[in-house]
Each structure stands twice: as C-alpha cells, then as structure tokens.
Design brief:
three-stranded antiparallel sheet; single chain; alpha+beta; Butyryl-CoA Dehydrogenase, subunit A, domain 3
C-alpha cells in the first residue's frame, strides 16, 4: 500500500506553510501581545482569500471537497507558527460539522467567508474565542446547538496561552437553537487537529533550540557541539518523527468512524502531545536559565503546547479509548493496525 501525500496535497500544504511562516513570526506575535489585539486582520484575510477555511467543505457549497488528510499538514504549519487565528479549528472542525447538518442555516457559507464560529469541545466547560465569534456551536447532552453571540453571556477565564482566549458561556438550549445531534465526529476531528498542531509546535521548539545551540558558546565552543546537548535534541526529534505518521494515519482513517479509527485518533493525540511536551521541555533546558523567561521566543510555543495537550480530550480520556479498543476488538499483527478489518468486526 502506498501511504504518501500526493503532489497536489504537498503543493497546498507548502503554499500555506510558506504564507504562515512569513506572516506569523515571533515578532508578529509579540506585536499583538503588546497592542492587546487578538488576531491580525490582514493575516486572516489572506487565509480566507486562499480558500483554506473551505478545504473540507463540499464543492457545491463553495469549498474544495478535500479530506482531513489534506488538512493535517496545514494544521501542523499553524502549530509551527503558534497561529493566533482559528484557521485549524474553523477549517478542520467547524466546517465539517456544519457541512454534515441537514440545515446549516446559512452559516457554512459565512464561515468559509471568514465569519468565526466558536465550537465547544465536548467534555470541556470553556469555549475558545467565544467573545469575538459571530455564533457558537454548543453541547447539550448529545445535541448540537447553534446560537448567535448576542444570545449568550460570556466570562473570560485566564489561559496559560495568552493567545487562547477561553470563556465560560451562559446560555439556554431551546428547540429553536437545536440543529442536530451526535458529537463523536466533532470530538474526533478536534483531537486530530490538535494533534497535528502539537507536531508543529514540537518541531518549532526543537528548531529554536538547535538555532540557539549553534550560537550560544561555553568554554569557547558552541554548546551544540557537546554530545549531551546533541543527544537531548536528537531524542526529542525522534519522538516527533515517530508521532507524525501516527497523526497522518489517524487522518486517513477518520472517515471510517469505527472504534478502531477513533482509537487511532486517540493514539495520535497522545503521541503528539508527549512528543511536543518533550520537545518543549528539552528546548527550555537547552536555553538554560533564559529558557524560563518570557523574553525567549520559545515560550510562545511552549505555552500553546501545554494548552493543546489538554484540549479536545485529556491524555487520560484518550488512553481510555485506546484501552477500550484493545479489550473489545481483535489484536495482533494482522488486525491491530488494520482499521477496516477490525471495524467490520465492531
């Protein structure tokens, strides 16, 4: 079986990555922090104009009709730059949710056009970006509710990541706001998109540490020339390289909707979270005492990694899914990694 990205997939990902790296540098992030602004409106317009928000929307709805596997590289790039704008969640979670509804009440086209819709992560009390969203997708049991921003009250809760604005939302579910049911697919997509971003964040932490190790000298030599530093960075890079294909495989199997495919997504979230955590902590160690201060750009990515590891399902929640798959479906060389086979048995 050929498991590789196509030329078209790579071209879209490369174009998006180049734009994000150029438009969202550490200096840009610090400018936003200093000004108190939440997002860069010019950067968001570029994202919208490139059509990235509609990648997973059907072509007849104005989208590209692509799959989750086409988006993971772009989500990874968004993580790599710690993008403040909600590209990954809007394109990877909100758009598929709206596209799957019998009646999206016109919101799918609005989201593709750049109107932000905040989405509640199932099982978590806080909603990211609720204050500036035009509408919110909220959970009530298994029901999906779409409610406009003016109809809810929000209260800010401080996040470890200053670019991740979290809010408690006070609202009342009604028959008028209910637009569907079933949150499993949304939860899976959210975990997958978070995992892809964690891979990008981990890679950025390693890249920053490598660059610093080449410049910082001690006893007349760059600290990167010492074996101890090399081994630390190599171990972190290996963890990233082993986690990345798990995320890609989870994206490919997402449409199956089986316990096995959900366990693959859970595995991806766990592996990506552990890899990003190791990369961030290793980068802090390589930076020495400076690594503990906000003056080092590393903290912009460290904080996002710590936040995303707990978002869209904690490690404990995803471990429970993996355990469920192991204890209820066949395992072994022929079935453990064959989602279609074990899916048929589920």
């Amino acid at each position: 079986m050929q498991f590789a990205f196509t030329e078209d997939q790579l071209a879209i990902t490369d174009a998006a990555r180049e734009m994000l790296v150029e438009a969202c540098s550490p200096a840009d992030l610090r400018r936003l922090l200093d000004s108190g602004e939440e997002i860069d409106s010019a950067r968001w317009r570029t994202i919208v104009e490139m059509g990235l928000l509609g990648m997973l929307a059907p072509e007849d709805a104005g989208g590209m009709g692509l799959a989750a596997s086409d988006l993971v590289g772009i989500a990874e790039a968004a993580g790599y730059v710690a993008l403040p704008e909600p590209l990954a969640v809007q394109a990877g979670v909100v758009v598929p949710l709206l596209a799957g509804l019998a009646d999206d009440r016109g919101w799918l086209a609005r989201v593709i056009g750049g109107a932000p819709v905040a989405v509640a992560a199932p099982g978590q009390a806080l909603v990211e970006g609720a204050d500036r969203a035009d509408a919110l997708l909220l959970v009530d049991g298994d029901a999906i509710h779409l409610i406009e921003r003016d109809a809810v009250t929000v209260e800010r809760v401080e996040s470890i990541d200053p670019f991740r604005r979290l809010f408690r939302v006070d609202w009342t579910p009604t028959n008028a706001t209910r637009i569907g049911e079933g949150w499993q697919d949304t939860a899976d997509r959210g975990a997958l998109i978070a995992a892809a971003q964690l891979i990008g964040l981990g890679q950025r932490c390693i890249d920053l540490a490598v660059a610093y190790a080449k410049e910082r000298t001690q006893f007349g030599k760059a600290i990167g020339s010492y074996q101890a530093v090399k081994h630390l960075l190599a171990s972190a890079q290996v963890r990233i390289e082993f986690a990345r294909p798990v995320v890609h495989a989870a994206a490919a199997e997402l449409p199956l909707g089986t316990l096995a495919s959900r366990a693959r997504i859970a595995h991806a979230k766990i592996a990506a979270g552990e890899a990003a955590d190791l990369a961030a902590r290793t980068a802090v160690q390589v930076h020495g005492a400076m690594g503990m201060t906000w003056e080092v750009d590393l903290h912009l990515y460290l904080k996002r990694a710590l936040a995303l590891r707990q978002a869209w399902g904690t490690p404990a929640v995803h471990r429970a899914t993996v355990i469920d798959r192991i204890t209820t479906l066949p395992t072994g060389p022929a079935t453990t990694f064959a989602s279609e086979l074990v899916g048929a048995a589920a």
